[in-house]
User: What shape does this take?
Amino acid sequence: MPRRKRQANTFNLSFLDIMSCGFGAVVLVFLIIDHSIEIQIQSVNAEVLSEVDLLEEDIREGEEGLVRLRNAISSTDLEIVEAQGRARVVTEELDRLEALIASLEESDVSETTDLEALKAEINSLEERIQQLREAAEADGGRSAREFQGEGNRQYLTGLKLGGNRIAIMIDASASMLAPEVVNVIRLRNQSSDRQRAARKWVQALDTVDWLTAQLPTGSRYQIILFNTEARFALPETQGRWLEVANSDQVERVITSVRETLPSGGTSLYNAFEFLDELDSKPDNIFIITDGLPTQGKDTPRKNTVSGPARLKHYRDAIDKLPANVPVNVVLSPMEGDPMAASEFWKLAQNTGGSFMAPAEDWP
Assistant: This one.
């Protein structure tokens, strides 16, 4: 019988030992590599976070320095503009007196004492103009007015406060007493002092006060109160734009506004039409109100008004606004008037103005 060849078995014990050792070495290498990478990542992260903290601290210091610098520049600029505004008023008075002298000379007036008195007044005014100009160039100062609300809050409103002729229109209807109808009725039957102290009305007055404190000192303004009719806050300034630089007059206007008692309904049609009473149209308008109007141009026959009717009164009214003038709206929403916010927001967007619904403690 032929002898069978013996088959060789390559997978004997020695080969398996070698394979196990090799596999273990590979696993060990992977463990060592992963561990070193983790340590390296943690080290790099710690260094990066430290650098980020330092950069954030530098940014904060830079922002604080920038705010201080801006405040210093702003205070200086405002004082210069205020002095220029006063100088402009004096210059106008000087021109008027010179024209008066010229007319007197043309009419062959023989009263030389009157002419001498006028010339002396002109010389005095010229000296005053020179003093104002020197004061404006010499140093900075403060704004025409200051207003600061309660607490430490930022006044990031988005309101566009620029312009040369700024009209501030405040709703003085009975609904400005409270955001709820039942509270409006209750306050309307209480004393005048209690009505003037109503939270919603006080907030509207503080808003006017804050706006006048933010106006550019070299600009002019007028404040109009309206309910079913419109009127100037200071009656003797009928139809005239007022100088922001005249701080005493600004205080008289604000005092007059604060003495107002809210009453009656609301007619935006009559309010916007009243802007024609000014000697030139405004280039920036602020409206402080709480909702859509309750009547149009004429007094309604009924005591109640529906939502669609209020919307129609509003859309008829905006046609009376001057063209190409930004309209900024500060709205304190009234109960039961859901369309007011969207309509006033669209008005602000379409005219290039801004819309704001302030918190209860603003400003």
